Amino acid sequence: MMPRILKSLTQNPFAFSAIVFGVVMLVSAFFVSHEFERIRENIKHQAFVNLLTLGARLEGEVNAHLVVLRGLRAEIAINSDINQGEFSRLVDEFLQTKLSIRHIALAPDLVITNIHPFAGNESALGLDYRTMPDQLPAVMESIQLKDIILSGPVNLVQGGTALIARVPVFIGEDRNILWGIVSAVIDDEDLLQKAGIDIRLWGNDIAIRGRDGLGVDGDVFFGNKETFHPDAVTVDVILPLGRWQLAAYPQGGWQVKNRQVLGYWLISLLVSFVMAMATYLIALNYREKLQAIETATYRANYDALTGLSNRYHFGQQLQAMIYDHQRHNHMFALFFIDLDYFKEVNDNWGHHTGDELLRLFAGRMRSIVRSDDLLARLAGDEFVIILRDIESATQAELLAEKLQMELGEPYLIDGQYLSVTHSLGIAMYPEDGHSMQQLLQNADRAMYAAKRAGKNRIFFFNEALSQEVKHHVQLHNDILAGLREGQFELYLQPIVALDTQEIAKCEALVRWIHPIRGIVSPGDFIPVAEQTGAIRSLGEWILDEACHLSDKFKQAGIDMQISINRSVAEFFPKDADARWLQIIDGHDVDHSNLVFEITESLLMEGGDSQLDKIKRLREQGIAFSIDDFGTGYSAINYLRHYPADYLKIDRSFVIDLLDDEQDRTLVEVIIKMGQTLGIKVVAEGVENQQQLDMLREFGCDYVQGYFLGRPVPFDQFLEFLPKEIHS
After folding, report:
1. Neighbours of 271 (CB within 10 A)
2. Which of 74, 40, 66, 43 lies closest to 183, judged by CA?
3. How is residue 521 annotated by DSSP?
4. pLDDT tens digit string along 714-725?
5. Does the bond joining 117 to the residue before it have cis omega, within 30 degrees of 0?
């Protein structure tokens, strides 16, 4: 399998290299795609690392501001009566670190009494948180949790936005008495700036969400909410209570740089091109080697002039055929052909004309023989043909005559017509030899005998076989001529139903009225017709004539079923059943008025194709009868599975029915078998009343024989029927 595939691919190196180029590009695409994914993951990981650093810096900045509140809470817990001057000095001391705090306010008992810086914040003095519904929840949550609450960013009355950090102050020995609230307003923009946060960093968009410390549930208060893409990298910024979420995502997603993309694809293209070129060169070299080997093999096995097998190759094939036919017990014919007066052609018209004649002669032979037959040129003007799997020497003779006729037609060479004849010798396997040497030698002898007899002749090596074949061929041609000239006639023999004692059907039997030989017995020409193939033309004529007679029965008001014999050879053509139905329907005959009589051998050896034809015909209403039953296989097992409507007991058993106990038992068994299987039984060859009585006693359905009526022409057959039927 692999050598054949490789040979096929290397027949076209360019196509092969194109396939390799495509395959390498596909593989490269897979690896490039995998590499791009790895690069994207690295970019994403680096962004995550940078974002972690940024988040840590932001946490640091937030905690630095909250430290101020924690310090104030400690101071106030010690000095709860702090005045404005002390408060301002204390706040200034904390604010020397240049934090982003805008101002800090003290609210003992939740009422703002001190604020620093004071300038610009005077309106906040005296503010009672209990009267401010928008801020009171955060204040109460801070008191309840006893920890810092970072709210916002919120919009300020003074303008802008800010974060508000609140921490409750408890006094007393157990620190369980609420003093009030310390709150700080933190400039969020300045805070983020000091933490190094910008709207775009490292090529990524930056955003923060989690207003009021709500994390993923909080609103985005820095950057665009689109930055929180499902594929964005995020880190949490931990607050005293709650958290923010910091996100980074590039516009257009995590993409590899165009320069990298171009570089990788250029490398892939280059690798694919190099591999394709290498493949092209290797395939080209391999093809040249294959061509050299094939050329050498061809020259060793075939004739350069005609293209036929040479003597060496023919000898190998012939030897293999002998082994095969010996194993299967088949027959074949060997033709040895030699052109007549070929030397004169070369002498008078030149070797160029002789070579052209041989080439045309070989081409014409090739067009005549079957595709599976062997044809070879041994040397000069000597040719041989082997006909595989033939059934008789008659078939070989018919093909030889066809060859002689068609090869004898003139050949047009260089503008002029040249006629040539040939002598042909035939050797049959296995009758004329079991070895290659014997067969060739005997066919050669037969060919020389044909030349000695006057050339342009066909001779068999076996003289007796030759005479038999010539007789069969002549009879074959006479049959075809007789069909054309109307020499055949159908006779009808009555078949009587034993239960009614009336003629229920008839069998159509062909008779050949030869103008010279008189009436020719069917036993003399039917077997020959089956061998030569003339049975098909004869069978179609019989069917056509039987349909014509059936139509005449119908016109006479007679319902009569006609049985027609069908040969095994008639079932071989693929369209046999369709052809027969076409003939029947052309006469508008009721299909149920026809019975096809076949032999047991067709059922047992015909194969599925023939059985399928029978089944299709039965589906169309045509009945089938197994003729000569009892002489072949006669197995009840195959009758259960194969189609049959009637069984006809062979006349050889009926003749000795009264005297032979074995025949009598066999007839009775066949009748009982038919009854068991629901198949009607016909006994043929009934010649006396005693046979008829015994068959009636056995329960036979129908009888046929000379005692009841001989085969007669149609008009005489009508006389057998009751007058009221056809009057």
Report:
1. 15
2. 66
3. P
4. 999 998 887 543
5. yes
Length, in residues, of the chain:
727
Q: At what angle do helices 351-368 and 393-407 cross, to 10 degrees?
A: 140
What confidence category does residue 1 fall into, taking pLDDT thresholds of 50, 70 and 90? very low
At residue 416 the predicted structure's pLDDT band, cuts being 50, 70 and 90, is confident
Q: Give 331-384 as a 3 state SS string.
A: EEEEEEEEECCHHHHHHHHCHHHHHHHHHHHHHHHHHHCCCCCEEEEEECCEEE
Rounded to 5 degrees, φ, ψ at 47 are -65, -40
- Sort residue 160 into left (φ over 0), alpha (ψ -120 to 50) or beta: left
Burial of 490 (0-12, 13-18, 19+ CB in 10 A): buried
- Using CA atoms, how far apart are residues 364 and 407, in angstroms rounded to an integer? 7
Work out the pLDDT band at 147, boundaries 50, 70, 90. confident
**Cα separation, 423 vs 449, whole angstroms:** 9
As a whole number of angstroms, the distance between CA 570 and CA 566 comes to: 7
Could you tell me which of 365, 282, 412, 397 has the C-alpha nearest to residue 9? 282
- Distance (Å, whole) CA 239 – CA 187: 16
Q: Does 41 score more than 60 pLDDT? A: yes
Q: pLDDT per residue over 536-573, tens digit each?
A: 999 999 999 999 999 999 998 899 999 999 988 888 88
Residue with tokens 């490398």: 267
If one counts every other C-beta atom within 10 angstroms of the C-beta of residue 4, the result is 8
452's enclosing H/E stretch is helix 436-452
Indicate the pairing of strand 518-520 with strand 502-514: antiparallel
Is residue 154 within 8 Å of 71, Cβ to Cβ?
Answer: no
- The residue with greater pLDDT, 174 or 475, is 475
pLDDT class of 293 with cuts at 50, 70, 90: low
Q: Rounded to a whole number, what is the distance in angstroms from the first to the last CA of the chain?
A: 76
What local confidence, expressed as pLDDT, does residue 724 receive?
41
Token pair 């694809």: residue: 265
Q: How far is CA 311 from CA 306, 318, 384, in A?
A: 13, 10, 9
Can you tell me which residue has the tokens 């019989």?
542
- ∠281-282-287 over CA atoms, to 5°? 100
pLDDT score, position 497: 94
Which pair of structure tokens corresponds to residue 68? 């101020």
| % of the chain beyond a pLDDT of 90 | 26
Give me the amino acid identity at 353: T
Residue 490's nearest CA partner among 534, 533, 553 is 553
Task: Give pTM, 2 decimals.
Answer: 0.49
CA atoms of 339 and 350, how far apart (whole Å):
16
Q: Tokens in use for 713?
A: 């022409």
pLDDT for 4 equals 57
More confident residue, 562 or 16: 562
Whether 584 and 591 have beta carbons less than 8 Å apart is answered as yes
**641 token code pair:** 């599975």
Q: Cα 272 to the chain's mean position, in Å?
A: 32
Distance CA 398, CA 621 (A): 38
157-174 average pLDDT score? 81
* Residues 128 and 135 sit within 8 Å (Cβ to Cβ): no
Contact by Cβ (8 Å): 394, 471 = no
C-beta contacts of 209-212 below 8 A and 24+ residues apart: 209/244, 209/245, 209/247, 210/237, 210/242, 210/243, 210/244, 210/245, 211/152, 211/153, 212/138, 212/151, 212/152, 212/242
Indicate if the pLDDT at residue 633 is higher than 90. Answer: no
pLDDT tens-digit series, residues 315-352: 888 888 888 888 878 889 999 999 988 888 888 888 89
State the Cα–Cα distance between residues 8 and 16, nearest whole angstrom.
Answer: 9
pLDDT at 76 over 70: yes
